[in-house]
């Protein structure tokens, strides 16, 4: 009975429509499970704020709205500013900008107008489904059998971060789609004499690069490999030429808006000193493990079976060589300020992971009959380990998001209209509260007094000081002040955050006799 059911399912997912329907239904249910009001923290919260600001500013103004711009034109109290050692905002020509690509904000814009906050998540779902379509196309080129397609789909949906990126607030899934579709057209290079395949491939990689900068390294790595074929087959130059044209276009747009060819992310890259030893360790994180997360082989040890593959003079071999170069370049050139992990699997290699896993199944299928029983058992156990790990991470992310929703409610209920974060404690930007707040960040007692002076100058008399409870216990949450006195102090502690609302007034010097 089980075999009959499995046969029906694999027959269904072995067809293009069945593969997409199965994947779409799963991702839709996954989104319904993980959405939880759509409130996010960290990168997700900043991306939501970035979109909210664009909706207020209107296209094409991608600058951030800073509530203190009038009283703080130097942006001294701008939350998460690069100049204060953070990684989210920077200032250029009297305006502040977020470090995430404004192209992602722009592509969300129509979805947000139609669907509100949910629109960004629906956009991810759309590109997740498009990626599944591209992966099925590649599976056809690999001549994968129905059963292999089904088990690959299970591994992709349950054992990787693909489902999460396809249903969360992230530009990564857009880049995954661009890379996967681009690889599909590269794989068709030999079987098709049409130059359009190389143009389309370069176009899709160029499209992906608008959203994730590691795609630039990936396309450059593939271009290095393809450079050796240009003299034998000049049309292969169409791939780097098309990609390069789009990259130059992006650089021009970036420079015209934020003053850097790599966009706001470029400022963050420049702020990190290069340390070869640190980069070698970072490469180890990407490939194996480190800093609390598993790398490529740490999360997917079954990829070791790729060793059964034998190189040929074909597009697949060239692509795999390019991916190898890309992994090395990612380790040595990506800023170590960027935490690479998503806890299970490498964050900065996720764009190539769906393809690598599909290639793994192709290798296993072609060699399965010749593998000894111990190797077959090992392969099944390693794949099962990845699925269990992926499910465990998805469950952890669900619990984390649930805690974020709780914290958002606590902050919305127990803060005043003006919120002052202690350094390193920025949890929610202004738009993520139930009602929008004025948000500032201080890094010292002196900056606290200076901010209160400015707020007092425009008639503000009440603020809430917020800090993570492990870093700022009640006794030190509110900095000492020589120029202001505090009264009507109300302290509140949420599961992870301390906050104290108070009225402040200036201390008037006593007249001298």
TrEMBL record:
The keyword Signal does not apply. Keywords: Membrane, Transmembrane, Transmembrane helix. The chain crosses the membrane at residues 12-33, 118-138, 150-178, 198-226, 238-260, 280-307, 319-338, 344-363, 375-393. This is Glycosyltransferase RgtA/B/C/D-like domain-containing protein. It comes from Leptospira hartskeerlii. The lineage of its organism: Bacteria, Pseudomonadati, Spirochaetota, Spirochaetia, Leptospirales.
């Amino acid at each position: 009975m089980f075999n009959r059911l499995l046969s029906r399912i694999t027959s269904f997912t072995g067809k293009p429509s069945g593969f997409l329907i199965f994947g779409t239904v799963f991702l839709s249910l996954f989104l319904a499970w993980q959405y939880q009001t759509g409130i996010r923290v960290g990168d997700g919260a900043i991306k939501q704020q970035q979109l909210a600001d664009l909706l207020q500013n209107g296209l094409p103004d991608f600058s951030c709205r800073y509530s203190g711009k009038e009283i703080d034109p130097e942006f001294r109290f701008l939350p998460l500013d690069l100049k204060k050692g953070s990684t989210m905002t920077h200032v250029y020509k009297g305006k502040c900008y977020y470090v995430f690509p404004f192209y992602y904000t722009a592509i969300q814009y129509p979805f947000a107008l139609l669907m509100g906050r949910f629109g960004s998540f629906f956009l991810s779902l759309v590109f997740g489904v498009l990626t599944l379509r591209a992966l099925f196309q590649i599976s056809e080129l690999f001549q994968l059998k129905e059963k292999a397609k089904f088990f690959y789909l299970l591994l992709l949906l349950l054992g990787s971060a693909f489902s999460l990126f396809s249903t969360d607030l992230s530009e990564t899934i857009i880049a995954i789609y661009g890379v996967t579709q681009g690889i599909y057209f590269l794989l068709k290079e030999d079987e098709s004499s049409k130059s359009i395949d190389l143009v389309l491939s370069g176009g899709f990689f160029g499209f992906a690069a608008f959203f994730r900068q590691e795609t630039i390294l990936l396309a450059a790595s593939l271009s290095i490999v393809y450079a050796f074929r240009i003299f034998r087959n000049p049309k292969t130059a169409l791939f780097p030429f098309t990609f390069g044209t789009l990259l130059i276009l992006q650089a021009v747009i970036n420079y015209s808006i934020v003053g850097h060819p790599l966009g706001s992310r470029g400022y963050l890259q420049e702020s990190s000193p290069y340390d070869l030893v640190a980069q070698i360790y970072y490469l180890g994180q990407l490939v194996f493990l480190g800093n609390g997360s598993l790398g490529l082989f740490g999360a997917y040890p079954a990829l070791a079976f790729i060793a059964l593959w034998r190189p040929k003079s074909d597009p697949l071999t060239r692509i795999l060589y390019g991916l190898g170069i890309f992994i090395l370049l990612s380790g040595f050139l990506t800023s170590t300020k960027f935490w690479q992990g998503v806890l299970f699997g490498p964050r900065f290699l996720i764009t190539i992971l769906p393809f690598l896993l599909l290639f793994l199944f192709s290798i296993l299928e072609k060699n399965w009959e010749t593998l000894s029983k111990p190797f077959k058992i090992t392969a099944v156990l390693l794949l099962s380990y990845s699925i269990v790990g992926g499910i465990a991470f998805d469950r952890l992310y669900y619990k984390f998001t649930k805690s974020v929703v709780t914290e958002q409610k606590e902050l919305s209920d127990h803060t005043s209209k003006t919120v002052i974060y202690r350094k390193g404690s920025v949890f929610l930007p202004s738009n993520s509260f139930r009602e929008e707040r004025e948000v500032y960040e201080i890094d010292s007692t002196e900056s606290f007094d200076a901010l209160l002076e400015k707020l007092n100058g425009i008639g503000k008399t009440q603020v809430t000081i917020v800090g993570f409870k492990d870093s700022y216990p009640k006794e030190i949450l509110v900095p000492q002040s020589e120029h202001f006195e505090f009264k009507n102090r109300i302290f509140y502690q949420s599961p992870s955050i301390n906050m104290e609302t108070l009225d402040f007034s200036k201390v008037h010097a006593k007249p001298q006799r």
